[in-house]
Amino acid sequence: MATRRRVLGAGLSVAGVGLTGVSLLPALNARGASAAPAPGGAADAAVPLFAVEMPLVPVLAPVSTADGVDTYEMTMRTQAKEILPGVRTELRTFNGQFPGPTIKARRNRPVVIRQRNELDVDVSVHLHGASVPPADDGGPMDVIAPGAERQYTYPNKQPHAPLWYHDHAHHLEAENVYRGLHGSYLLTDDEEEALPLPTDEYDVLIAIRDAHFDTATGALQYQMGDRARTTLLVNGAPYPYFKVAARSYRLRLANHSNQRFLELRLEDDSDMTQIASDGGLLPRPHTTKAVYLTSGERADVVVDFSRYPVGTRLVLKNTGFGAVEDVSQVMRFDVARTAQDNSSVPDVLRKLPPLPQPTAERTVVLSMDEDGRPDPKAYIDGKLYDHARVDAHIRSGASEIWTVTNANTKVPHNFHMHLVQFRVLERQGAAPRPEEEGLKDTVRLMPGETVKLQATFDAYRGEYVYHCHMLDHSAMGMMATMKIG
Questions:
Q1: What is the CATH number of the domain that holds 30?
Q2: Range of the domain at 76
Q3: What is the count of structural domains for the chain?
Q4: DSSP states of 401-430 as a string?
Q5: Which helix (H) or strand (E) holds 479?
Q6: Contact of 145 with 169, CB cutoff 8 Å
Q7: pLDDT tens sequence across 387-419
Q8: 200 and 332 co-located in one domain
Q9: Of 84, 332, 345, 458, which sits 20 to 30 A from 54 (CA to CA)?
Q10: What would the pLDDT profile of 293-320 be if each residue is shown by its tens digit?
């Protein structure tokens, strides 16, 4: 059976690290520079490639639909599951599932989720990419203590978008998400459903993340900035295969990793059609051979498997710089049957409203210690996160241009804003590429790179955070607070 072998320390370079995140912190590890496996771990063991079928993430059913509100109940609890063959891994889960169950929501139909914390750590559930009141945002200090519960209300007034939910308790968010506290929340509306895109069983979530296992015990190994997270999981399974029909599929790609960057392409380098990003459908479809996703980003693509004969096996690869053998293969598509296909991708997917006249401009600088010190810190505008400090005062209704710069010379970052979806105006002084022409909530920033974006703050008043969504970095302090009012 084919296997993926670990090649830790295989000459990975920090200077010029591309879009894989394999070596984001090789000299910045919070426990030293070597990131060695935990004692007793069989970290060089092989993990079978394409030995298990890709699970379909279950869709959660509401406990009530009364009065036009969909009400759900979730319990965060420890659950052991078999991920690697023959061993069980203890996870922090929503409803005992890994990843957490998918919620399907509809615009202008509110969702209420009652969350109970049966873990032994604080949690705070954030709906990433959502426009919600501050009390329901799942802020880093607004935690649910062990044994407690709370209710989150999501108005769903925004347009369709492939959102996701995850823990956000400060200093705990990186480990909690890594150990399993993440899931998808797919918001739709009439505009999206009116299009003849692939639907039902041909509309498939593919949530990708990495992990570092003690393969003797199955335990997830966690340390800040660990570069040994070299087992890729798809919907919770390592390197799975997925049986497809010879027709078009909508694949909802989501990067749920803490800090890994992905460059995804089909092994025959054939075309994919990107139709959506973080904030929903792009204005126009974009034909591409590769999809770039930093941690937290999402992208929907349509792949036409009818161009392959039944019996074809096609690998989805990760081909970014530094994608050593461990992480160069993600999953395999097995073309198993024929099927009728009445779907199509229109030339125009949506019309975004024109951007309003900007009312203010501000700059944001992301940085972190990259000199090899044993306990690196991460900053926004030279400051560590302080929940008692407001870093940006924003007038309600304002539409602002933010110029965000990665001041590091070695370490990549990305940038996420709560509450708002934004538009990318420029990248390094040039117009954004087609995949960044839609609505976004997370954007990549390679070393020395600057991105200019515009956001409009006209939904809710109150305090929200913005931060690097490489969660190990935000846990190190790369987060700040904006107050809208």
A1: 2.60.40.420
A2: 66-190
A3: 3
A4: EEEEEE--SS--EEEEESS--EEEEEETTB
A5: strand 479-484
A6: no
A7: 999 999 999 999 999 999 999 999 999 999 999
A8: yes
A9: 345
A10: 999 999 999 999 999 999 999 999 999 7
